[in-house]
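Quick one:
INPUT:
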C-alpha cells in the first residue's frame, strides 16, 4: 500500500480522487492550501504526489520547481493534473521532473493506471539503486581486500589484452596512476618494464603468461627470474586464473604476481652456505665430493683423464701462533684466490678445512700438464702476502692422483693423492709429487 498526497484547490476534485485512491488499496492524503506543500512534504514525504497545475496561491509549476531544487524531496514521483492542453506547459513540467500528466476531468481508469505505473517505476528505480549500492559496496570491499594484499594483481580482457582492473601494488610497480593503466594493453604497458612480460609478443607467443590459461582455460603458474630496474636480482611467481562466463568461456584472466626475491635470495644464500666454505667461499668438502663424482662420470663417458690434487700449506700453524687467527684467515682467503686463478672455469678448487685445499682438473692430457699447473700454483702461492702490515711468505706441498691410472673411485683417488702429498713433504716441502712418483720409487 502506497501513501499518495493530492494537492488541489478544488475540494470536490480532491474528494473524488481520494476515493479512487482508497478503493485501489492505497492511503490518500490531501492539501488544499498550496503554499504549505513543502512544509508537509518535509514533515512526511509521500510515496507519490498528485499536483494540480492551476492553483490560485502558488501554481503547480512553481511548486514543482521548488520540490526539484530540494535534494531530499526530488526523488518523490510527481504526476501533474491539469485541464489545459498546452504542449509547451506539458513539456516544461516533464523537463522539471514530473513523471506523468493526467487531464481533467479525471477518468478513474486512466488515473489508477498512471498511479500504478508511477509506483512500479519508483519501485524499479529503488531496486536498481539498491543493486547499484550493493555492487558499489561489494566493489569497495573487493578493492579494499585487493589493495591490502602484498601481491600485484590485475584483471585482463583475454580478447583485447587490455587491463580492466589493477590493485595498489601493481600500480606502484609500474609507477603509474590508475587512469594511466586501466584500458591499456598489457603487452604495451609492460614492454619497457622489468617484468616477466617485457619481451612478450602477445598471447599467441608461447612465452606469454596468458598463453596456457587462454588455451586450456585452466589456472597456470610461472616462475620468473630477471633483473629489476637498477639491475638488481628479481624473482617472481605469477599465477593466471581464468574467470568464466555462463557458457564456460574465459572472459577475464586474473594475474597475481608475488615478489619472492627476498625468499629466493635467502634460499640461494642458504644453499651456498650448505655447499661452500664460509671463509673462502670455495666449495666445501661435500660439494667437492659431488664435483669429483661428476668429473669421474664424465671421464668414463669420454675416456678423459681427471687429476685430484691435495694441498697443504707448509708450517701454517706458525702464522696463527705468531700473527693471530685473523691474519691466518686473511692468508687463507688469499691462498684460495691465487689457486682459483691458476685453473680453468671447468676445474674446481675447494677447501676441505684448516689449511687443506684440493683441486679437480678435468680433461687432462697427461701428467706433464698436471705438473705444469702445479708448478704454476707453487709459484703463485710463493709470492709474498701483505698481511697485518707485514710481508709474509709461505710455501705449499701438493700431492696428485690421476684417474684412471691411479684408480677409478673417489675414495681410492683421494687416498692416493694424500700419499703423494706426504711424499712431497718428505721431499722437503714446497714441491709437487704424483702418486706415480711413489710407484717409481717402489
Amino acid at each position: 500500500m502506497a501513501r499518495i498526497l493530492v494537492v488541489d484547490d478544488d475540494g470536490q476534485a480532491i474528494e473524488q480522487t481520494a476515493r479512487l485512491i482508497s478503493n485501489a488499496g492505497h492511503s490518500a492524503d490531501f492539501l488544499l492550501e498550496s503554499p504549505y506543500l513543502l512544509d508537509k512534504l518535509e514533515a512526511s514525504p509521500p510515496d507519490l504526489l498528485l499536483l494540480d497545475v492551476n492553483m490560485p496561491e502558488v501554481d503547480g509549476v512553481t511548486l514543482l520547481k521548488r520540490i526539484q531544487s530540494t535534494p531530499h524531496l526530488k526523488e518523490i514521483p510527481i504526476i501533474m493534473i491539469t485541464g489545459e492542453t498546452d504542449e509547451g506547459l506539458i513539456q516544461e513540467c516533464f523537463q522539471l521532473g514530473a513523471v506523468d500528466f493526467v487531464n481533467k476531468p479525471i477518468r478513474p481508469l486512466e488515473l489508477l493506471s498512471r498511479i500504478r505505473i508511477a509506483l512500479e517505476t519508483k519501485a524499479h528505480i529503488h531496486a536498481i539503486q539498491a543493486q547499484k549500492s550493493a555492487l558499489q559496496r561489494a566493489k569497495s570491499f573487493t578493492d579494499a581486500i585487493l589493495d591490502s594484499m602484498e601481491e600485484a594483481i590485475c584483471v585482463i580482457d583475454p580478447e583485447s589484452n587490455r587491463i580492466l582492473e589493477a590493485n595498489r601494488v601493481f600500480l606502484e610497480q609500474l609507477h603509474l596512476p590508475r587512469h594511466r593503466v586501466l584500458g591499456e594493453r598489457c603487452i604495451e604497458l609492460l614492454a619497457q618494464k622489468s617484468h616477466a612480460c617485457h619481451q612478450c609478443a602477445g598471447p599467441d607467443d608461447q612465452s606469454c603468461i596468458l598463453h596456457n590459461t587462454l588455451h586450456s582455460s585452466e589456472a597456470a603458474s610461472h616462475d620468473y627470474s630477471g633483473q629489476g630496474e637498477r639491475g638488481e636480482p628479481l624473482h617472481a611467481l605469477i599465477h593466471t586464473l581464468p574467470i568464466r562466463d555462463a557458457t564456460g568461456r574465459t572472459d577475464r584472466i586474473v594475474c597475481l604476481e608475488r615478489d619472492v626475491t627476498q625468499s629466493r635470495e635467502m634460499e640461494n644464500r642458504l644453499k651456498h652456505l650448505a655447499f661452500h666454505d664460509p671463509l673462502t667461499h670455495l666449495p666445501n668438502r661435500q660439494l667437492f665430493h659431488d664435483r669429483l663424482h661428476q668429473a669421474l662420470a664424465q671421464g668414463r663417458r669420454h675416456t678423459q683423464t681427471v687429476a685430484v690434487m691435495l694441498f697443504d700449506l707448509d708450517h701454517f700453524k706458525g702464522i696463527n701462533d705468531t700473527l693471530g687467527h685473523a691474519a691466518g684467515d686473511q692468508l687463507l682467503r688469499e691462498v684460495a684466490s691465487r689457486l682459483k686463478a691458476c685453473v680453468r672455469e671447468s676445474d674446481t678448487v675447494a677447501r676441505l678445512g684448516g689449511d687443506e685445499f684440493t683441486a679437480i682438473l678435468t680433461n687432462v692430457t697427461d701428467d706433464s700438464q698436471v705438473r705444469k699447473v702445479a708448478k704454476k700454483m707453487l709459484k703463485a702461492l710463493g709470492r709474498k702476502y701483505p698481511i697485518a702490515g707485514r710481508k709474509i711468505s709461505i710455501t705449499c706441498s701438493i700431492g696428485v692422483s690421476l684417474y684412471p691410472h691411479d684408480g677409478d673411485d673417489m675414495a681410492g683417488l683421494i687416498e692416493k693423492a694424500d700419499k703423494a702429498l706426504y711424499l712431497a713433504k718428505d721431499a722437503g716441502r714446497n714441491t709437487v709429487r704424483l702418486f706415480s712418483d711413489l710407484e717409481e720409487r717402489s
